[in-house]
Amino acid sequence: MKNKRILFVLSLVITASLALAGFTAGENEDSYGYSIGDYAAEINLLNVDGNMVSYEDYPKAKGFIVIFTCNTCPYAVASEDRIIALDAEFKGKGYPVIAINPNNPEVQPDDTYELMQAKAKDKGFTFPYLYDKTNTVYAQYGATKTPHVYLLENTKKGRMVQYIGAIDDNVRTASAVKERFLANAVNELLAGKEVSVKETKAIGCSVKQ
Amino acid sequence: MKFLSYVLIGLQVISCVDNKKITSEPEQAAIVESSVESKSNDDLIAELRSGIMVYNFEGLDRALLQKNNDTTYVVNFWATWCKPCVKEMPYFEKVGAEYAKDKVKVVFVSLDFPDRLEPLVVPFIEKNKIRSEVVLLDDADANSWIPKVSDEWQGAIPATLMFNNKKRAFFERSFTFEELEKEVQSIL
Q1: Fold for domain B41-187?
Q2: Residue A5 confidence class, pLDDT cut points 50, 70, 90
Q3: Same domain, yes or no, for A20 and A122?
């Protein structure tokens, strides 16, 4: 009898905690920007060439490789050549890179619009490098650090978030990369498959706001 | 109130179950083995003349994160290039000194690239007279180890893990001294 009672209490407890856990997880998703399967809103941001850039400027795109990055974070700098290579590899296939600098130059003086222009010219960026003047886009996405990647696929319902995380498994040394998380995800979408690794984590510099 | 305590006990039961699931048996055996061989250097990549240990994640995990004793560990992940990290380091130093009597131990885990250790990290520690232990984590595959530190960690630094044999807390944020002291007090 006692055992039965314990069992009953235990099952109550488990149900209650599962309910609680579910509730918290739901809350986190809301407060952390986009999750996999969400639809990304349109952007309209100033590019280093002086023009405004929106997703709708790319009518032929199948999707977008959106990368939050900045001028001087060592992880961002270590990724620059790889970001250029990704644009070269996937722009022609319908997935251009869109880079967005989420940092507030008043907090991070290395990330002014002028220094972004210098960086883009110096490195020969082949993709837009956008200035998040209102400091709202990074929060909308839930980007917490640089670099931080969001892969969007154009679907009938909108630009669906298909992958969030790192470019690959070795931010420091391109030659030591074993898994190209982002490239694999784009290739899977291009092949009409479901993305197998949807989220990864990487160390980055916190977004400076 | 009674219900709440049942819920709490239930949560603990679940988290114990989870832990067992995560730590598969061969891994447990390995951990036991390495703590017996107290000077297993397999995971220690280097020990510099300055005394800074360089670990891969497995090494750091065994040497520090798995500790289970009456000390409260405050493990701060930082890098010399991370301005908010550098700003809050004196607060960690102060907490480490003021709460040493309560067995609080502060450890700074540097995520600087290993080639910056001698030219940047060591001079930084000397210049700022850092007294807490500093180690360097040299493990590029962050996707595999970030979740092992905490599921909550998105990967930004500063980040801080506090734990003792009763409680564990993780923070992906920067602290003022008062905020840090409050969190340390609440885990003691």
Answers
A1: Glutaredoxin (3.40.30)
A2: low
A3: no
The DSSP H or E segment spanning B124 is helix B122-127
A25 and A40 assigned to the same domain:
no
Which H or E element spans position B187? helix B177-187
Q: Which residue has the higher pLDDT, A18 or A129?
A: A129
Nearest to B154 among A171, A176, A201 (CB): A201
Where in the sequence is the domain holding A192, given as residue range(s)? 33-206
CB contact under 8 Å between B143 and A201, yes or no, is yes
Interface mutation vs chain B, best among A73, A201, A208, most B CBs within 10 Å: A201
Per-residue DSSP letter, A46: E
Please tell me whether residues A4 and A87 are part of one structural domain: no
Q: B172 vs A144: CB contact, 8 Å cut-off? A: yes
- Token reading at A28: 């986190």
- Residues B6 and B46: their CA atoms lie apart, in Å, by 48
For chain A, the average pLDDT equals 88
ipTM: 0.73
How far apart are the CA of A6 and the nearest CA of chain B, in angstroms?
11
| Pairing mode, strands B44-47 and B53-55 | antiparallel
Q: A13–B10: do the CB atoms touch at under 8 Å?
A: yes
Whether residue A108 contacts residue A70, with contact meaning beta carbons closer than 8 Å, is answered with yes
A25 and A75 part of one domain:
no
d(C-alpha A152, C-alpha A61), whole Å = 10
How does the average pLDDT of chain B come out, rounded?
Answer: 81
CATH number of the domain bearing residue A95: 3.40.30.10
